């Protein structure tokens, strides 16, 4: 049992990062090197890169998968972004609704489930 | 996992992600509803007290207690490789309402689940979405043994605007839950169209 915030060395925010949405998607940088060779990274950092390598994952999924608080995973992702090991795609900004065509696709997709 | 392994050399697609919230009173069927359509079992995430910046738990004397477990249902529906819908069940307890702000940011819309035997339990959720102009539909979860009320009566009791859709559902039944979610997206589209209209006229 580890105190979750020990992993982030007590940090609750990551430098230069605006708060990641729960459904922001994290992708590993294809050209990124091996995170395991970086001694400053924790095993959890390495896990995140591994999880995102084949399949993009949302912040919420990563937190659930790693069984860590969302706040901790946010900080860890911030570290990885700073090292250019992953990048993050932001969801559609709150004020603008996604394209009507996307919403139609959602409706059709739900119907077809 | 979800999006399938990428072929060698081909970068994985970056999906568009959307979220819909599921709110409502204690025991009204939120977890059941998310589970009925999600391709993953409902997961729970943990939130951080300090991060929320609100001293909701008195932690004096409990040094080192920085996190609390807030049950938050979380479901996923992959509509297409590049289009994923997430469902988040909002925590029912009032002391966790601060989490709603984070959850509702950027949400496409919401479902307010209601039980006709205790309609007042969902007043707070209706207020919340109304005040923030977040498109929502009311899903009346039809429990066995609960009397069926005419739609008008339920609308009146909730003081719903005429344009807010009210749908009957069974949170355990995938088909009716799909209809409710489709209702949310359609209503969100209609609200967006209205807003555009009022901007141009
Ligand atoms: N008969 C019937 N039972 C239901 C229905 N929906 C939910 N239930 C049952 O009601 C109980 C509560 O449902 P949950 O999905 O856990 O409710 P919840 O809103 O997540 O509850 P909290 O998270 O505790 O607020 C469970 O035992 C469900 O099986 C329904 O449509 N019909
Ligand atoms: Mg629940």
User: What are the low-pLDDT stretches of chain B, counting only 5+ consecutive residues below 50?
Assistant: 1-7, 49-63
Broad CATH class of chain A: Mainly Alpha
CATH class of chain B: Alpha Beta
CATH topology of chain B: Rossmann fold
Number of domains of chain A: 1
As a whole number of angstroms, the C-alpha radius of gyration of chain B is: 18 Å
Count every helix of chain A, treating DSSP H or I runs of 4 or more residues as helices: 4
| Termini gap of chain B | 48 Å
Please give the most extensive interface between any two protein chains, plus how many residues each contributes.
A-B, 42 and 52 residues
Fraction of residues in helix of chain B: 25-40%
Indicate the overall shape of chain B.
Answer: globular
Strand order of the largest sheet of chain A: 2-1-3
Number of helices of chain B: 6
Average pLDDT number of chain B: 83
H/E element string of chain A? EHEHHEH
Per DSSP E runs of 2 or more residues, the count of β-strands of chain B stands at 8
Based on the coordinates given, report the CATH architecture of chain A. Answer: Orthogonal Bundle
The major β-sheet of chain B equals:
6 strands, mixed
The biggest beta sheet of chain A, please?
Answer: 3 strands, antiparallel
